[in-house]
Amino acid sequence: MDKALQIFTDVYFNSTKPHLVVFSILYIIGQWKMLTKSGVKGFWSLVPCAREYQFARCANRENDGRAASVLDLCTMACVALSYVFKDPYILIFIVVLVISLDIALFMVHIRIYGGIIDVYNAKRSWMILWLFLPTRVIPALVWGYSKAYQPRMKADDIRTALDRILSSENAEVMDTGLTINLKQRAVWDFFHKKPLLQDIHMYIPQGHMVLLLGGSGVGKTTFVNAINGYEKGDAEIILNGRNIYKDYRHMLYECGYVPQQELMRSKDTVYHTLADAALMRLPVDTPPKVRKERIEEVMDILGLTPARNTLVQRMSGGQKKRLSIAMELISNPSLFILDEPDSGLDGVMAKELMEELRHVADTGKIVIVITHTPDRVIDCFDDVIVLAKDSTRTGRLAFYGSVDDARKFFECDKMEQIIKKINTTAEGGEGLADSFIERYPEVKNAG
To answer: What CA–CA distance (Å, rounded) separates 122 from 103?
Structure first.
């Protein structure tokens, strides 16, 4: 048993043999050049795990690259453990685990190298060489350094093509209202910068109440967080002539945001809840009389005056929603963003709440609302913003304009039908997002 175990450990854990080191170095040299040909930084070939992912991107097999990176990382961890544990039974378990990981990695590599062959328009017979390290060196060096072998597409070709089609001119910056020029909001995901939102440009006038529409996961919350400066992107956000990003400390009080969750103490009364909010949201030098007048004014606007002495825990769902809104409205912000304020409310209560928000907008404020049941309150809105995921899963602007224009553009009467059209077929939709995203700039420019 000890002899058999020694053979297994030599095969799987002894990577210091000179010929294996040479093969690995030659493969890295060839892979560096192939990555460069595909528009990816060549140095990624030097980074364990990451090179698997980046090479898979060149093969148009990004998801397989994620799997290969994880499997490669797990294999490296097992090799490290083999130097720590010397018990034969533990080593046998590690060897079996490594064999299983190698089999899984082999299957993933078949898909990745198949993608590379397709991208290079090469014969399928090359697969035999790609699957094994000693022979993998040959296609890596030949394809990397021979001018006869060129990829028909780069790693970011799909996204670049969409960017050329969809990138639009910046919205003109106005002295009043909200100007949004969001070039990109991105995160680092698996050794790769992944855009969450791209090329969103618009101008929203003062006094407008705007519906923010989009399917689940499209980036609506990311969008509003980028607008109010909570999660900054590559953007210029101008509210009434002032840059929110550059003057964030001051503009923080000009942007009110009401999340889905209710952040109130259940044992406080309505008045005490708003009094605490006023202490936090109004300038510290605000006279007590002015603070009290503002509390009374906000309660009156949202119909909370009769419930001023009511405990939060005894309030109805609709009253709690209005109190959440009042807490943010207390600072008199110019921009007001609400994430599903009508969630959990019946049709009558939702309508009443939206009418109160309509009244807030009529005072000259910009009100942006996210709601999953827009049709029951659509009469309260001036405009509609529609975000949709393109074929690269990036949030794009599919439409911005009046409610009537949205109906014409999407050729449907109800807002919820718009969601069905832009959602993917896997989400129960019609998968038409790309066509609307591409057509919107033409319609906007024509108008």
So the answer is: 25
Give the pLDDT confidence of 276-312 residue by residue, as tens digits.
989 888 888 889 899 999 999 989 888 889 988 999 8
Residue 157 has a pLDDT of: 61
Q: What is the pLDDT of residues 146-157, one digit of tens each?
A: 999 999 887 766
Q: What number of other Cβ atoms are within 10 A of residue 260's Cβ?
A: 13
- DSSP characters over 1-30: -HHHHHHHHHHHH----HHHHHHHHHHHHH
Listed as own residue / partner, the contacts of 281-285 with beta carbons closer than 8 Å and 24 or more positions apart are 281/253, 281/327, 281/328, 281/330, 281/331, 282/330, 282/331
20 residue type, one letter: L
Q: Give pTM, 2 decimals.
A: 0.70
CA-to-CA distance for 124 and 122, rounded, in angstroms? 7
State the DSSP code for 402: E
Dihedral sign of CA atoms 265, 268, 269, 272 in order: negative
Dihedral sign computed on CA atoms, order 271, 275, 277, 283: positive
Q: Is the pLDDT of residue 60 over 80?
A: yes
Between CA 186 and CA 198 the distance in angstroms is 8
Q: What is the CA radius of gyration of the chain?
A: 29
Tokens read off for 253: 């009080």
pLDDT recorded at residue 6 = 54
Work out the average pLDDT over 69-93: 81
Q: What number does CATH give the domain 161-446?
A: 3.40.50.300
- Asked whether the predicted pLDDT for residue 270 surpasses 80, the reply is yes
Q: Are 42 and 35 in contact (CB under 8 A)?
A: yes
Contact of 320 with 264, CB cutoff 8 Å: yes
Domain ranges for the chain, please list them: 2-155, 161-446
- Three-state DSSP state, 43: helix
Regarding beta strands 383-389 and 366-370, do their DSSP bridges make them parallel or antiparallel, or are they unpaired?
A: unpaired
